[in-house]
Amino acid sequence: MTESASHQFHPTLLREYDARGIVGDTLTEADAEWLGRSFGTMVRRNGGAKVAVGYDGRHSSPALEAALVTGLRAAGLNVLRVGLGPTPMLYYAVNELGADGGVMITGSHNPPEYNGFKFMMGTGPFFGDDIRNLGTLAASGDVESGSGLSEDVDIEDRYVERLLADAPTQDFKIAWDCGNGAAGRVVEKLTARLPGRHELLFTKIDGDFPNHHPDPTEEKNLEDLRAVVAEKKLDFGLAFDGDGDRIGAIDAKGRIIWGDQLLMILAEDVLADVPGGTIIADVKASQALFDHIADRGGKPLMWKTGHSLVKAKMKETGSPLAGEMSGHIFFAHRYYGYDDALYAAIRLMRAVARAGASLTEMRGAMPALINTPELRFEVPEERKFDIIEEVRKRLSEAGADMSEIDGVRVNTPDGWWLLRASNTQNVLVARAEAKSDDALKRLIANLNEQLTASDVAPVTL
Hints:
- This protein is of the alpha/beta class.
- Helix content is 36%, strand content 23%.
């Protein structure tokens, strides 16, 4: 049954992996209700009857959650409301409660004025054409009608129990920086039951993020963690993004352990249990990671950047573990195959305990390579994919050794450089890795030659 009412979303709201906007401007409560109506329609037409809904600690999240639930119920769905918590707790609820889908209201690591929605269809990802279809259904008014029910479900303690199920018995001294994000309360409950000593930073959930922005991939956001680890002489430190699906880490010396380096440690542990397993990493990851996986008898698989794309590839290949430079870590080994930074923290503890070496020793043993940070170039939205194609064509004609999985990743005797188009912003993203400063300069010169040829300002390091 359909009705004549319809709704137009702001053209920037529906992204490749989620819906995201500025509250009161490009994202309103009316948008939230219609997202519920459209998504509920898709779930019903997929044979589903109930969805789980959660929300993060942003000030706008409770009102957006209420509007979303109104829309879901109006589409005829029953709603399981799991309340305030990290995104992976919502993923856990969908899996454990037998829901036919899920929606998480979260702005992740965006500034406080933003908010958004992450979706699951069944227990799998929901992205790309599926998200665009939400706009099509709302604009046409082609939506289902009904009068679903809603029910509050407290799943937080069950989620903590599940995290503890894979925790090691070894005593660690760890600092946990929640950045005032949605993981704070769960981390308090989790660490209260872990052995060892745990120093907690900024666990109070506060949508103003008064201490620092909750994005562990930016070095400046790890300064408080470094200070506590050094002052208290701890084994290592962990940090989480605003909705708890991305992890950051530092060792006892304050050195950052980047996403691909975490994956090196975790992959070695998983491959001990799953010999020959396929381990997936995104195109921004170090060659050292892919070599390390192969050296440990695993099958390294380079794949596209984007958490939804990685989850889909894991299901396709039966991969037990995957990760991205951004700190999304996905465990299908002993877990559900989604990105959960709190579970990744537990598995990192487990991996270090089983390795018989400290995390600092493991970090110190990694190859000494020189990497650029992620370099970003703002370009017109309508040009970003064209630029990548121009670069690809020139390199192909020149006989370059390159991967075209996601943009272009060019291999040379000096190392490699990457140029890809962001799926979520009007930017190009570049990265390079070499064994020496001189080699890195040559790689950057190669990259700059291509950027200049497509009228993009060159890199200056």
